[in-house]
């Protein structure tokens, strides 16, 4: 716990819109240990992508009103643009969601890979560097690029190196994206739903590949997905996100054994399963970010909500040694240091109905 | 279920070679009967645009669907699921074969008769955002099919729109809203209301929930089930999500490069898949519960991706990725084999003659 690679503390992100200020990220805390894969799971519109893009600094229009992003102990938000630029690509890298649009269609795969290797995320390139580059041999860089293509299980790396993206299939392109993201052997990799645009069989291959490579290079990964099944296969630690807040966090297996937050339970229940039918889903929709509820953001959709839920914000509380949920149905010590003093803000309305009366009201998730 | 459903090794049930897949299921008076349906897209080349080849997107597909049941179509992208759905409704005209809906041969109809027939067959599209006209109100959208088929007076139609909105669980105020102010799930419910507005018998659902979140998907599926019971609808449910297909269908067909590789009752196919491709698909499903893990057959990873349909492998189309492929697969395409009373699978491993040769590497 002492020296995490990435630590996000109390991050707030706001956007100015015509309807007012949208408080999209409302106090997120996240820790990625070295060599660990952490997943963020949530539905579309819950702020997953905004979170990772804020970490990388890809949202110039966002107003980061509060919070810290500590990467190797250094607050990224205080760095100059040029310094952040240098971190991107070289130390942290991202695999984008859609392999069809994340690669430039007018350059070959090889050209794009060589660019990454040559310039390594430099913000500006001086004229002397540029001229020098013209006389430098590309053979070594080319070898490295082809070697990386081979590592992502591309069977004809030389041919792919010379190809334009349109000549490749979806799965191939996703492999190329992974190869480009890993070219500079980053310490930290963000994967934003890399399997969503692919078929199940291809997705399974990509997940396996990512797992192997991450282990080999000892990369830490922050994996974004809407699919709990995928998160279960790939991650060590799982964070469930709802409306810009993390509502439950636990080691992956613990979370699946004992899902606590009503949203997590609802989500699990909605997934069509092979052994059991489809649940009822979660009625209602995400709250309006420009006018979020004062209490729990999930209260309007929650079957167990009480008056306290609509009035007091449920901070994350530690329900078990490694398990924390943001719900008044659970008792526990504050999970985060910044809530340590505010013990009064932790009302308890539980116990949860599915524990109190297991025979009748049990929501059989497992 | 405490025991795993699958053993560590695959067993391939022997089967009888069959010519007529429809005969296996022996449905009396099916609502939909598709026989040898093919859709080929020609490829033209040269200055005079001579046809040099054809992409056989759907190739000789036969099946029947009993009234009030759901037939699930599964396959990877590019397998021809959508083309098959569209050919059945004659949104695209099939190249060969016949489609009978409730005894009427749809493929022979044209002009006014076809238009009349379309009242019985409707479709729900994949992407709710692009399948609703953004410049029309919800009322106008749902009303359009009724106007086309000249059903009721303006007052009656308005009444019907209200009823339909209630059926798909939307408030009646939505009548005068535009699609842009609806969420994805709400838009798809409007799409469903539009499809059932003219009391169809057959509805083709082309990935109706793939653009929706899981929590929303569950509700849409529930609405579809309600409507099916209420109006005795027959569904063709197209999806790439096998867990979803398992829950909504009565019978399924697994498509690979335009051909059925396995058809049968949904429970038996999921409990004991017969074709290597079905097994690979099932073993690739990400699962959230331990019960579900037992449903997954032992791991069977597929190499590569679905081949270019212009250059299908000779013999069995699945040969290039199949971990079980052996000599006869390259020579000629296998026929369908009936492996038990409710199932057919297109694989040489079911042939008595090859029972000892294929199946596993340790033999």
Automatic annotation (TrEMBL), chain A:
What's its EC? 7.2.2.11
Protein name as it appears in the record = Nickel import system ATP-binding protein NikD
Enumerate the SMART domains for this protein. Answer: AAA (SM00382)
Q: Report the enzyme's class at the first EC level.
A: translocase
What sequence ranges are listed for the domain ABC transporter? Answer: 6-268
Q: Which organism is it from?
A: Natronosalvus hydrolyticus
NCBIfam families listed in its UniProt record: oligo_HPY
This protein's membrane topology, according to the annotation, is: Peripheral membrane protein
Q: Where in the cell is it found?
A: Cell membrane
Keywords carried by this UniProt record = ATP-binding, Cell membrane, Ion transport, Membrane, Nucleotide-binding, Translocase, Transport
The reaction(s) this protein catalyses: Ni(2+)(out) + ATP + H2O = Ni(2+)(in) + ADP + phosphate + H(+)
Q: Where does the UniProt entry say this protein principally localizes?
A: membrane
**What assembly does the database describe for this protein?**
The complex is composed of two ATP-binding proteins (NikD and NikE), two transmembrane proteins (NikB and NikC) and a solute-binding protein (NikA).
Q: Which GO terms describe its biological process?
A: peptide transport
Source organism superkingdom: Archaea
Gene3D superfamilies in the record, alphabetically?
P-loop containing nucleotide triphosphate hydrolases (3.40.50.300)
Automatic annotation (TrEMBL), chain B:
GO molecular function list? ATP binding; ATP hydrolysis activity
Name residues in a coiled coil: none
Q: Which UniProt keywords apply?
A: ATP-binding, Nucleotide-binding, Transport
PROSITE patterns attached here? ABC_TRANSPORTER_1 (PS00211), ABC_TRANSPORTER_2 (PS50893)
Give the matching InterPro entries.
AAA+_ATPase, ABC_transp_ATP-bind, ABC_transporter-like_ATP-bd, ABC_transporter-like_CS, Oligopep_ABC_C, P-loop_NTPase
The chain positions of domain ABC transporter read 32-282
The lineage's top-level taxon is Archaea
Q: Which GO terms describe its biological process?
A: peptide transport; transmembrane transport
Among CDD domains, the record links this protein to: ABC_NikE_OppD_transporters
Q: Which Pfam families match?
A: ABC_tran (PF00005), oligo_HPY (PF08352)
Tell me the protein family, please: Belongs to the ABC transporter superfamily.
Could you identify this protein by its name?
ATP-binding cassette domain-containing protein
Protein source organism? Natronosalvus hydrolyticus
